[in-house]
Amino acid sequence: MNIKINKKDDIVLKILHYFITEEDYKPVIINGLDNEIWLENMEKDLKLIRINNNYIHNNEQLKADTYRAKSIMKSIKKSTFSFNMNMLNLLLDTGDAVKIVENKNMETIKVEKISDFKSNKVVSEFFPKVKDSVLTEKIDPIEFFKLTEDMNQKTIKNEKKLQKIFSQRKPTATYILIVINVMVYLFLTLYDRSGTIGYLLANNRLLVKSGEFYRLFTSMFEHVDFWHLLFNMYALYVIGPQVERYYGRFKYLLIYFISGLLGNLFSCVFMGDLTFSLGASGAIFGLLGSVAYFTYYYRATLQGLLRSQVIPVILLNLVIGFMVPSIDVSAHLGGLIGGLLTSMAIGIGDKGRKTDQINGVVVLLLIYAFMIYLLITR
Question: What is the pTM of this model?
């Protein structure tokens, strides 16, 4: 049986194979496009790769094609809440008269053969591994099907990773935290009518400053009344399982307690001398911060969830905190910052870059040190 493979199809497959298997790019599904393929990797300097197999015969058509590609890029940038986005635009079928012009945030390359791609300065600069890749001009049907199988296996592997991350798990740690909070509330309500133990648990600036640092921890499990407890435990019941599923039980507890402690430290610094603060809301805002960090990393997979749901929920709760005098908004802000930085420090599976983790640890420690300094010197 004779199998005839089109030269352009062979080039497309080889370039696709390189980006998917070597650079960990993933296809982007965009409706209404013919003969072009889009790939994304939000951790790269060139976050988008576009492979256009349509014929462009003159500069006017190139201008129109560039405008359309930039419009799609802006849409992806908006939906993924990306602050900066650059794209590699590969044109596989252009007329001789077509002249490539520079465009901001878009590197456009004409590719008529594999060597045009492999030897290009822009490609070599952003993808140093390309010089060691096996990209040849030879059209081989056996190699064609092998490359296809390699990409299929890579896709299956990536899907398994996502299934593991997003699969349902029993949120044991969340349930334990809820039970502890409820038990503490019931104990104080039934057996501490004088409020003596409650006083010993609550957060207060002067008492913490005098050396009672344990209050930063114990106040996370104390609540003013039933409605305060109910609101916080419902929020924990909704948000906690997501964070526990995304990060795992141990990292989830780290995020919860480090955020809660930082939130209470913020509260100490900004509260009055006679004010007492208590509740799990600082830790819960830390969980919101961790969800925001996670959805930012997986923003392409989660299709704009960060912009449409996570950030509005955080902003709404912060606004409510500023409007209601009895709410300790400083603890919310501290917890939110703690959740973001702790999530950065512990990383997200194989997506957590070492530089991000180091930066997260350093900034988190600096904020803790600065807040302790303010607490001591005020």
Answer: 0.71
What residues are annotated to the active site? 281, 332
Strands 203-204 and 276-277, bridge-based pairing: antiparallel
Q: Which CATH class is domain 170-377?
A: mainly alpha
H and E: helices and strands count for the chain: 16, 7
Average pLDDT for the chain: 82
Taking only the tens place, the pLDDT of each residue in 299-347 is: 665 655 555 556 666 776 677 666 666 678 889 999 999 999 999 999 8
The four Cα atoms 319, 322, 327, 330 give a dihedral, to 10 degrees, of 100
3-class SS shares of the chain: helix, strand, coil, % to 5:
65, 10, 30
- Residue range 4-59, pLDDT digits in tens: 556 777 788 888 888 888 888 888 777 777 788 888 888 788 889 898 888 888 88
Q: Are 339 and 232 in contact (CB under 8 A)?
A: no
| Residue 278, H or E segment | none
In angstroms, the CA 231 to CA 224 distance is 11
Six token digits for residue 195: 């409020």
Tokens 């104080």 map to which residue? 188
d(CA 90, CA 88): 6
3-state secondary structure of 80: coil
Enumerate the β-bridge partners of residue 49.
39, 88
Q: Specify whether the CB–CB gap between 215 and 263 falls below 8 A.
A: no
How far apart, in whole angstroms, are the C-alpha atoms of residue 279 and residue 230? 11
